């Protein structure tokens, strides 16, 4: 029976993406790969996201970006549009009364299916069957049902002649008398075995997904073992998402213009390119002018601009330089800026410098005035989030692009392979979404940072975090500067404290606010923080965040951040802690002071230390603002 399960596009690019288990009512489903996200004629159903060539080149992506398909339910259950297909999984179900295991009971009774009645067990109580809550996952990305028959008979000599038969119901999964463990039994041969809910199985089918048939996807030998995981185990699914802002020149496109209409239609551009004779091309330009309801001269001008390389005009792009390009776009004024563009930074730095405090004022507000160099209200931004794939069992990365390894304390090293959204790189596109919003951007004074960074205590704590990070092999979707620098830890911690203060003071839920850290030493230093909100609506958010980037409100806001950084409700324990969080990759940072929702942080809530902002209790590190007023 087909059913429509409403979900958000943002979910399809994160925890409900390709290969993920999602729950709808009382059932579990696994999302199929993007090779199935097609219309009836087999073409991709999602719309192409335009004006992201600079972004794609900088991220090293050579495929198109498309939105997920869109569908809605009409009257009488009819569906308008293309749905993202999903498969009911796990396919084994269990009777909560007698423990009998049933294989795919849903198609067997069409009358019940038509009436939307759940399948029931054949026992006396006729209990509703429930999907089992365990699956088998492999570090190379594979997912399959638990082999219940082989597990029930693995220790039974008499069970060697008991063949698996999914048509019959003869296996039982029940708790033992203590209620703390599970046992498997066979009604036919009386075999019995303990079910290890955290067991490891021989590594085969390492990359096959539940919806893939065996014909075109042969078994692949693997030295690694599969893991039995519960369906809500966090190790079952690690999505890999990359995000970036659209900046000039592509953010400056005037939507709906003749240039936009022509550039957004590859078929019409290809037809113009094919016209080798001037007369034939002129005739086509006239037809396009009639279609666009404009003058021929406008179409000719648009085509001339495209032929000359519009909108990038041959701009060279280096993979990995996106943050530097965004920083430049945020700090340098844009000429003739209009509110209708996709990237609208309104510079407040001049007005910020007009604020003054008495010379003898030593309050945080006075020192913040001296410590902040640039202030920008980003009244509109466009963010692109791209789903790159997923891993299972292990999440860690050996570089900024591909996850390859992770270590668990109770097991040998597991090698995790990134599974692309089409499983085999056969598609010419990747799923992505575009979000619109606003934000606050500011930079710290380089002179203040130069004086602050000379403290030996900063290098000691940074080196300790660097050693711990190297031991874990952990990497992130947006890698920090490596090796770690005191500047990065400072900016990252300050961004978290600002997000928490926005939640407390401005009413923004922290989970809706994201951070982007612009950090670099050297001849072209960066020390900037962008906190922003972004939503799928093209209108964007309501403007409240950008209003806080006005000089006076922002001064009060950031001064409050430093005020609250001085004390945590868990101090002195938090401030004196030698290491907190996974692999002790935080120092003075806990849920009471500096941690934020995972959706807000690009670095998994790690590499944080409040001592870099407020100083330490021993006096080895002085507060950042102590260096703001020095000349």
Give an overview of the whole structure.
This protein is an alpha+beta fold. Helices cover 25% and strands 20% of the residues. The protein contains 18 helices and 24 strands. Strands 3, 17, 18, 19, 22, 23 and 24 form a seven-stranded mixed β-sheet that branches. Strands 11-10-16-15 form a four-stranded antiparallel β-sheet, with no helix packed on it. Strands 1-2-6 form a three-stranded antiparallel β-sheet, with no helix packed on it. A hairpin with a 5-residue loop joins strand 10 and strand 11. Helix 14 crosses helix 16. The N and C termini lie far apart (73 Å). Residues 108-114 and 398-412 have low confidence and may be disordered.
Rg, rounded, reads 29 Å
Number of strands: 24
Strand percent estimate = 15-25%
- Overall body shape: globular
Average of the residue pLDDT scores? 87
Question: The biggest beta sheet, please?
Answer: 7 strands, mixed
Q: Total helix count?
A: 18
Provide the helix percentage. 25-40%
Poorly predicted runs of 5 or more residues: 108-114, 398-412
Classification by helices and strands: alpha+beta
How widely separated are the two ends? 73 Å
């Amino acid at each position: 029976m087909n059913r429509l399960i409403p979900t958000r596009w943002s979910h399809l690019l994160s925890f409900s993406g390709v290969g993920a288990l999602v729950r709808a009512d009382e059932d579990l489903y696994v999302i199929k790969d993007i090779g199935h996200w097609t219309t009836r004629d087999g073409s991709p159903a999602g719309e192409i996201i335009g004006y992201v060539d600079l972004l794609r080149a900088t991220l090293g992506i050579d495929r198109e970006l498309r939105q997920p398909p869109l569908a809605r339910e009409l009257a009488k259950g009819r569906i308008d549009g293309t749905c993202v297909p999903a498969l009911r999984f796990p396919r084994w179900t269990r009777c909560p009364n007698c423990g009998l295991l049933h294989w795919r009971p849903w198609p067997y009774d069409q009358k019940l299916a038509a009436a939307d009645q759940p399948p029931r067990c054949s026992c006396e109580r006729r209990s509703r069957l429930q999907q089992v809550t365990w699956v088998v996952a492999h570090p190379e990305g594979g997912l399959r049902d638990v082999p219940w028959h082989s597990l029930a008979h693995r220790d039974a000599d008499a069970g060697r002649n008991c063949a698996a038969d999914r048509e019959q119901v003869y296996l039982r999964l029940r708790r033992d008398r203590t209620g703390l463990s599970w046992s498997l039994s066979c009604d036919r041969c009386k075999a019995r075995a303990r079910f290890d809910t955290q067991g490891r199985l021989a590594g085969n089918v390492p990359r096959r997904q539940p919806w893939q048939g065996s014909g075109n996807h042969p078994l692949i030998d693997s030295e690694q073992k599969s893991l039995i995981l519960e369906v809500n185990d966090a190790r079952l699914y690690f999505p890999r998402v990359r995000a970036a802002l659209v900046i000039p020149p592509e953010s400056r496109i005037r939507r709906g213009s003749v240039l936009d209409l022509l550039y957004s239609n590859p078929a019409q551009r290809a037809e113009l390119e094919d016209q080798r004779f001037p007369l034939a091309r002129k005739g086509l330009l006239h037809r396009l002018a009639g279609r666009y309801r404009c003058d021929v001269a406008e179409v000719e001008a648009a085509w001339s601009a495209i032929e000359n390389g519009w909108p990038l005009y041959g701009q060279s792009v280096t993979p990995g330089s996106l943050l530097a390009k965004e920083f430049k776009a945020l700090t340098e004024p844009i000429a003739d800026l209009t509110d209708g563009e996709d990237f609208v930074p309104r510079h407040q730095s001049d007005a910020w410098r007009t604020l003054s405090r008495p010379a003898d004022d030593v309050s945080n507000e006075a020192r913040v005035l001296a410590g902040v160099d640039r202030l920008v209200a980003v009244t509109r931004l466009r963010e692109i989030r791209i789903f790159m794939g997923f891993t299972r069992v292990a999440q860690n990365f050996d570089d900024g692009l591909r996850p390859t390894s992770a270590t668990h304390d109770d097991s040998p090293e597991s090698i995790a392979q990134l599974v692309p959204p089409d499983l085999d790189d056969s598609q010419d596109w990747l799923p992505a979404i575009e979000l619109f919003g606003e934000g606050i951007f500011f930079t710290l004074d380089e002179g203040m940072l130069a004086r602050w960074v000379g403290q030996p205590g900063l290098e000691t704590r940074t080196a300790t975090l660097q050693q711990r990070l190297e031991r874990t092999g952990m990497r992130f979707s947006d890698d920090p500067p490596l090796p770690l620098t005191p500047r990065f830890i400072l900016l990252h911690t300050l961004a978290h404290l600002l997000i928490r203060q926005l939640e407390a003071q401005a009413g923004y839920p922290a989970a809706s606010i994201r951070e982007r850290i612009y950090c670099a030493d050297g001849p072209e230093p960066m020390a900037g923080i962008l906190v922003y909100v972004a939503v799928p609506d093209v209108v964007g958010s309501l403007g409240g965040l950008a209003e806080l980037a006005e000089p006076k409100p922002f001064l009060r806001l950031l001064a409050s951040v430093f005020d609250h950084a001085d004390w945590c409700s868990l101090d002195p324990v938090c401030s004196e802690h030698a290491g907190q969080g996974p692999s002790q990759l935080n120092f003075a940072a806990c849920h009471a002071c500096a941690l934020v929702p995972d959706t807000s942080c690009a670095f998994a809530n790690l590499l944080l230390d409040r001592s870099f902002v407020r100083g330490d209790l021993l006096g080895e590190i002085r507060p950042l603002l102590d260096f703001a007023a020095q000349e």
